[in-house]
């Protein structure tokens, strides 16, 4: 797993309404049973964030981007940190690559 602790600025007031986070990835196989990435996010209270849109079984033989959103009311507190976990797997000689991660926020 790749685990990222992301600090929010003290001026943070919220995520952008459209595409608050963007993840870029590429794999040697488009078959998610062979290569895949799964994204999990935990809010500043450590609670799992329910993601909507593509966030699991990610696989693409060209660089691709996913922009998952969230439902419910996760807590993202200014000046605190939240956690992003990216679980990547590849069978045999296959590969899974993680590219740029972009976080768009207000504040």
List the topology elements.
Blueprint: E1 2-7, E2 14-15, E3 21-27, E4 35-42, E5 50-52, E6 64-66, E7 69-71, E8 81-90, E9 96-103, E10 105-106
Antiparallel strand pairs: 1-8, 2-10, 3-6, 3-9, 4-8, 5-7
Describe this structure in words.
The protein is mostly beta strands. The protein is built from no helices and 10 strands. It has strands at residues 2-7, 14-15, 21-27, 35-42, 50-52, 64-66, 69-71, 81-90, 96-103, 105-106. The strands form 4 sheets. Strands 1-8-4 form a 3-stranded antiparallel β-sheet, with no helix packed on it. The chain is elongated, with a radius of gyration of 14 Å. The chain starts with a strand and ends with a strand.
Task: Explain briefly what this protein structure is.
The protein has strands at 2-7, 14-15, 21-27, 35-42, 50-52, 64-66, 69-71, 81-90, 96-103, 105-106. The protein has 107 residues and is an all-beta fold.
What is the rounded distance between the termini? 30 Å
Could you estimate the helical fraction of the residues in percent? under 10%
Provide mean pLDDT, rounded.
Answer: 95
SSE sequence, one letter per element? EEEEEEEEEE
Shape summary: elongated
Number of helices: 0
Biggest β-sheet description: 3 strands, antiparallel
Derived structural class: mainly beta
- Tell me the β content: over 45%
Total number of strands? 10
Radius of gyration: 14 Å
User: For the largest beta sheet, what order do the strands appear in spatially?
Assistant: 1-8-4
| Poorly predicted tracts of residues | none
